[in-house]
């Protein structure tokens, strides 16, 4: 109490003053003292508290620098080849403060081609908000592109999420598991009823979810994502989506350039942040007929941020959600 600046002593809850050694009280930023739940202070070794503060501050600083790059992108006057190079470079720099717990869900070991063996079909999911959605009974998943692999959908069903699955190329029963519904239609930028392809807005409206929170939107739709991403953002269909997990298929510089513009828009205007980039190990390089310098097929995940919170507040909010879900 003697060593701590007076304004910190006034603002810090009494239980922290009682439990925290003075040297840590001096070193810990005030926002941590105010916001960290009491059980964290009790469980966390005192020696970790200053390190955690430095760790979070570093993540936030790096992410602020990454966001400035996206906000300052000038795409005008650049060739498709230049934009392709820029996209693949930026995809190697995911934001690191946005998600605290990420898990790889689903997938299977692929052995049908001679040049490579690898796992295919999985998706990474940030569990921070998903756990809270599960605790509240509000986990809603939209999944486009099933083919023969239900591993992702089955896992999300088994942990308690409601799953709407779609694929126009295969036929399955309407219901599967406890909470999976299947429809034989596909996702695209602009609705084409003849081909059974529909925009995201039309599909959400048809299922009564235009204004519903979508916990996770997954799509592996063989190229339709290239024009679709920008179109869905422009239509407002992504306004209630919390996470996007998809595979992009960029076989030409022109397709990469279009994808870059879409990702720039959802990042700068839609408040999504790249949190995962993982190359497709099956497609890899051995099936790349163009012999590109880049990995043309990759899994990416974007998570929406709350811009009313600072970076530090966002991190602490994630911890609280995880702990709250565990308590529930």
Write the layout of secondary structure elements.
Blueprint: H1 6-11, H2 14-19, H3 22-27, H4 30-35, H5 38-43, H6 48-71, H7 80-90, E1 102-105, E2 108-110, E3 118-120, E4 123-126, H8 127-135, E5 140-144, H9 151-158, E6 162-166, E7 175-176, E8 180-183, E9 186-187, E10 197-198, H10 200-206, E11 216-219, H11 225-235, E12 243-249, H12 253-268, E13 272-279, E14 297-304, H13 311-327
Keywords:
eight-stranded mixed beta sheet; 41% helix; two-stranded antiparallel sheet; 328 residues; alpha/beta; globular
Q: Short summary of the structure?
A:
This protein is an alpha/beta fold. Helix content is 41%, strand content 19%. Strands 7-8-6-5-11-12-14-13 form an eight-stranded mixed beta sheet, with helices on both faces.
């Amino acid at each position: 109490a003697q060593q701590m600046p007076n304004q910190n002593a006034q603002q810090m809850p009494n239980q922290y003053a009682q439990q925290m050694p003075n040297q840590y009280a001096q070193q810990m930023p005030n926002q941590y003292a105010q916001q960290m739940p009491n059980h964290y202070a009790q469980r966390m070794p005192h020696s970790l508290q200053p390190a955690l503060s430095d760790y979070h501050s570093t993540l936030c600083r790096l992410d602020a620098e990454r966001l400035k790059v996206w906000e300052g992108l000038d795409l005008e006057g650049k060739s498709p080849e230049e934009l392709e190079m820029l996209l693949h470079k930026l995809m190697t720099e995911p934001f690191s403060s946005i998600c605290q717990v990420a898990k790889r869900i689903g997938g299977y070991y692929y052995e049908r081609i001679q040049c490579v063996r690898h796992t295919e079909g999985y998706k990474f999911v940030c569990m921070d908000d998903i756990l809270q959605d599960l605790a509240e009974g509000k986990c809603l998943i939209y999944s486009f592109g099933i083919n023969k692999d239900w591993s992702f959908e089955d896992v999300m069903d088994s942990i308690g999420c409601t799953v709407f699955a779609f694929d126009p190329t295969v036929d399955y029963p309407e219901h599967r598991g406890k909470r999976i519904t299947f429809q034989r239609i596909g996702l695209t930028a602009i609705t084409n009823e003849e081909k059974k392809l529909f925009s995201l807005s039309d599909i959400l409206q048809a299922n009564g979810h235009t204004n519903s929170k979508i916990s996770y939107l997954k799509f592996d739709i063989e190229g339709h994502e290239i024009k679709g991403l920008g179109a869905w953002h422009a239509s407002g269909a992504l306004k209630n989506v919390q996470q996007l997990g998809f595979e992009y298929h960029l076989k030409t510089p022109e397709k990469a350039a279009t994808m870059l513009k879409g990702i720039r828009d959802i990042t700068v205007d839609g408040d999504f942040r790249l949190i995962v980039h993982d190359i497709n190990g099956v497609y890899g390089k051995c099936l790349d007929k163009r012999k590109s310098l880049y990995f043309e097929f990759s899994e990416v995940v974007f998570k929406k941020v709350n811009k009313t919170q600072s970076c530090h507040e966002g991190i602490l909010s994630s911890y609280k959600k995880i702990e709250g879900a565990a308590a529930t």
